[in-house]
Write a structure and sequence with these properties.
The protein is α+β, with helices and mostly antiparallel strands. It is built from 8 helices and 5 strands; from the N terminus they run βααββαβααβααα.
């Protein structure tokens, strides 16, 4: 069996027959439209995030299969929060506040890509990314939430016994606006205190 592998980074659900896919498939005699449709179907849940995709083509049988990787944890967190980047000074500057339910959802999405052997370990890995990005979890330091995971506080959600709360886009925007407003107010207070000195 002769296989040709094509690797590409595709925005979830938005693959097209243009570059890089179309030109790579053309010489192989594979219907680019079918490949694109399959990629878009498999990456639809990653809308708005760039996803690694592997197209494996059997050049003899003229068949293909698609393998979709998962985006980096940081990309999924940024998508949930609607932010472009993490903090450059994670210890001192926080750029967002994400819910534990959103992080559990991300840990489920990345189950096969994370190193943790248990659901708790995988969730702690995802929360660890929040530490390095300068993101709070339900208003708390992520390390505090990792301890709560160890204590079993979120086991019912991790085991599917308790439903995860899904926020609408409006709720996410409102949460972020509130967070930004609070941070501005804190900065103003610090400025005022410095002036009084």
């Amino acid at each position: 069996m002769t296989e040709k592998i094509i690797n590409a980074l595709i925005e979830g659900g938005k693959a097209s027959a243009g570059p890089p896919i179309g030109p790579a498939l053309g010489p192989l005699g594979i219907n680019a439209g079918e490949v694109v449709a399959e990629i878009n179907k498999k990456t639809a849940s990653f809308a708005g995030v760039t996803v690694p995709v592997k197209i494996i083509v059997d050049t003899v049988k003229k068949t293909f299969r698609i393998e979709v990787g998962t985006p980096p944890t940081s990309a999924l967190i940024k998508k949930e929060l609607g932010i472009e980047k993490g903090s450059g000074k994670a210890k001192d500057e926080k750029v967002g506040d994400i819910s534990i339910d959103e992080l559990i959802k991300i840990s489920f999405m990345k189950k096969d890509a994370l190193h943790g052997k248990s659901a708790r370990a995988r969730l702690k890995e995802v929360i660890g990314t929040c530490v390095t990005m300068g993101i709070l979890v339900d208003g708390k330091d992520p390390r505090e939430v990792q301890k709560e995971v160890d204590e079993g506080k979120y086991d019912a959600k991790l085991e599917g016994k308790e439903a995860l709360k899904e926020l609408s886009e409006e709720e996410k925007k409102a949460r972020m606006s509130k967070y930004v407003k609070e941070k501005k107010e804190e900065a103003e207070e610090k400025k005022e205190k410095k002036k009084k000195r």
